[in-house]
Amino acid sequence: MQVLVVNAGSSSLKSQLIETDGKVASMKCLAEKVGTDNAFMSVAFAPDFQKTMYNIAGLSVVQCLQKLLEVLGDDPESPISGIDQIDAIGNRIVAGGEYFTKATLIDDEARANLTKCEELAPLHNPTADACIDMMRKLMPNTPQVAVFDTAFHATMPPKAYMYPLPWSYYEDYHIRRYGAHGTSHRYAAQQAANLLGRPLRDLGLITCHLGNGGSITAVNHGKSIDTTMGFTPLEGLMMGTRSGSIDPAIVTYIMRREGKTFDEMDEILNKKSGILGISGLGSDMRDVLKAANNGNERAELAIDMYVYKVQKAIGSYYAIMRRTDAVVMTAGIGENSAELRERIFAGLAHMGMILDKDRNQVEGAIGVNRVISIDDSPIKICVVTTDEEMRIARETDNLVSQQ
Ligand code: AMP
What percent of the chain stands above pLDDT 70? Predict the structure, then answer.
């Protein structure tokens, strides 16, 4: 089945065309900083994946996707000769609330429920929904599936997902913890099980998705039992531009002191905080690491705080799991930064997570799933490459094939 995977963010678009029988991607597209003057979209086709760049200055994410569909239909290098050859579309949706606990075929009822989830992830969901609407118009006969970042966490018990707030907020507004990055945590857990040669149902894992956004999940017997993101993807770890968990009283304090509006406060916490807020330099971990290594004190503090919060989250999940067999590192930072992994695990050896410094080095190992702990480490440390697009394509195929 030819599945077009669409992963639309607030200012980015990632997409792949995946042939699910052979589990191979034949097109990869990436657009970042969408909406700015110097935005570009790269489109690359198999077999050599040479990138062609398209100027997308001033276009919205939906318009970028439209442009990608034109390229897919018209480019002689394209693996398909028209978009009618796309069998199904798999959409990554950040928040599914309590409406969606598993991947869902998008019919009118599901589409209406998607709108209700928009306020749970205001940076991501509305854009994804607009993309779905555009494609439903353009390709009305092509089935679309929504694959939710929250679905994997539907197994969390109430003690993990409830907030200690007045009960009515849960009943009236569904305020509870939903988690996010579920597709990535589920995939990372399965990859780690494959790597360890043991069934997932027998394992206790702590999966760490450390990218621009970041979250850590306790995965017991293949099920999420707790995760660091909450009602929205703002809770939990310190992230590229997101504050993660802070004392909630700070929010009302700043609003009173500076007369900030709700939208301004959202912007401060989601886009101006985290690594960016502390370093004052940017949100890209590579730049901040470089600055710290050149003696920039705020960059060093940002990294110190980041590492500390990751260590605390891993430690707290170790405490609630009956057993921990492995800690799994994935996403941009988790997969690629030997330096940060070394700093994180330097503080966790006493819990039995003992890194092998040579195995931890990246050279020649990017994209290779591997164990990076010493042979005798009581708890293994794994690095796995996240492949959210493949996972979304497979879930889409499963669902559409059942119809
Ligand atoms: P993601 O959101 O998964 O694409 O991850 C993006 C983050 O990974 C950014 O903060 C990047 O700076 C970071 N990243 C990617 N490669 C490296 C690397 N080699 N060392 C440190 N951070 C990296």
Answer: 100
